[in-house]
Amino acid sequence: MKVTVFGRKMASVRTARRMFCAAAAPVPSSRWERLKNSKAGVWCRSLLSDYKEACRESVVGAWERPLKTSVYVSLLGGAWACSHTKPDQSSFEGALLERSNQLGLLSPWIRNGVSDGHVQSLVKLRNKGCLRYASLGLLCVVYRADYDPDTMLYEARCSNLSVPWRELPQRVLDVGFIGRWWILDSKMQDYDVNKDEYKHLPAHMQGTSPPSPQEVERNERLHRDSWLPLTMEDKEE
Length: 237
What we know:
Blueprint: H1 2-24, H2 31-37, H3 39-64, H4 66-84, H5 89-104, H6 113-128, E1 131-135, E2 140-144, H7 154-157, H8 168-171, E3 172-177, E4 180-181, H9 182-187, H10 203-206, H11 213-226
Antiparallel strand pairs: 1-2, 2-3, 3-4
Helix pairs in contact: 3-4, 5-6
């Protein structure tokens, strides 16, 4: 009888202890709560708070100073447009081949010497594999190298013998900006006019200027008069 009463007391004590431990134990949190309270979660929340505050200050500053904001937005938009319209290496090769074909359709006697020499030199460098392309953010440049990238010579592979960056301005062959190759386009102006043919002429005849409106009107009038029928008048005796 004593053993039974003692066992019941021990069972009640274990039950009370179990209930007390269950009441004192913290409620298990969800996975999202544990993630929010972790170090990474606290860092992300502080970062988002900083960005939120920076955006709010930017909006308030833009509203208070619209002129300054317009200038900044214009500069950022212009920089994005320049970077987006920057030509690539394939566009330079396409432009070079197109200019070479344009000159190839002309007789050597009427080609512009400057245009023909510039294009021919670029074509020779391209065939040798000595043209290099470099992107500089808002613009790009094409410059001349000494060797083909696949050359296995010691002079071409040794880093100590490579061309320093300070010599890059002397090696630049073209500049790409806003979808154009400016040096190539400037060299191709009047590519079908051989200026060497006019060297024997006097200085005042070597250059031409557009006619004035009076000269244009006079030439048109003479042209119209040339199509009129001739009128014959009898000579009075």
